[in-house]
């Protein structure tokens, strides 16, 4: 597989397969190849849209954010006190300048009360802080031991930025702070990448969606966990649908969704009711990744689905059914794909030393829940493929190479959403 090839490029012979052939003749992809393929199978992020500030939260900027005005757009007072003109003492003049006012110019050796954030009158040479002055019989006196600094406690126009100045690069996530900066810079709407839509299909007759596990059936852990995790990557999850272990039901569900990305759980292996490969073959899907050399979660897959009726490209990420294995699938395939589609900038994985030797698999990469200490990464307990207890206490997933990581060796880290 060539993970850097665009999605439409023909695959090397024998590497990109139809689901039918893959079902019986899988050659597992390395973790790094699979992770890169998920990122690069989308040639570009989704198109830009103009959202109101409130609706842009969580999206990624589609263009650099440039200031529409100087910030501040006029000289403002940094303190409550008096705007003064020239050396003191000063004759007090006027009732005071409040935020939002349009003050008259100051004559030399006069002063006017002023509030923090109010526009500084023309002719003012400084702002005298309230605690450093004394007003007596219409005259203002300086009480501080040092003279006023020229332009002291005045925030000059353009101190933060000038009109046209680039504030943030494209790909920046729109956080609450970004919304505040954009509003201050004059924006009512932001150009952001459309968030990819996701439909989650939960496959399996054994899943219960309420109450205690019973009669050989287990509670569905992925239905509550996956949507917020996928939303953290920039996606918009439209719904979670349980699907019974029936080929026809799975085929109908795949035919009914027009989501940018379909995420399935379970049915990725070759068990008696694992129908995902067959359903994908009948739908005309094209596999990009089918089984990854990673533990837990090696029977995961990534496929191109036939285009939506409006021509949009669509993809499917098949996650294993075991909870921690599904988490590995999200980190390996779903997260890099969705962040790319959402337009978020790709950041290199941070690294840390192994505080102790980290156990690995003899041949596969291992995604290991770890605690981060001042000395580095240490394994978290309860790390079996069906367990989530260790993940809830972990600070990250360590990407442990085949054979394990020796103490003090540096390992890459994948974030765990909080």
Question: Can you walk through the features of this model?
Answer:
The protein is α/β, with parallel strands linked by helices and 418 residues long. It folds into four domains: 176 residues, Molybdenum Cofactor Biosythetic Enzyme, Chain A (3-Layer(aba) Sandwich); 52 residues, Molybdopterin biosynthesis moea protein, domain 2; 80 residues, Beta Complex (Molybdopterin biosynthesis moeA protein, domain 3), CATH 2.170.190.11; 65 residues, MoeA, C-terminal, domain IV (Beta-clip, Beta Barrel), CATH 2.40.340. Helices cover 20% and strands 28% of the residues. Strands 1, 20, 23, 24, 25, 26 and 27 form a seven-stranded mixed sheet that branches. A six-stranded mixed sheet has the order 8-5-7-6-10-9, with no helix packed on it. A six-stranded mixed sheet has the order 17-14-18-22-21-19, with helices on both faces. The radius of gyration is 30 Å and the shape is elongated. The two termini are 34 Å apart.
Keywords summarizing the entry:
single chain, 418 residues, alpha/beta, Molybdenum Cofactor Biosythetic Enzyme, Chain A, Molybdopterin biosynthesis moea protein, domain 2, Molybdopterin biosynthesis moeA protein, domain 3, 7-stranded mixed beta sheet, 9 helices, elongated, disordered N terminus
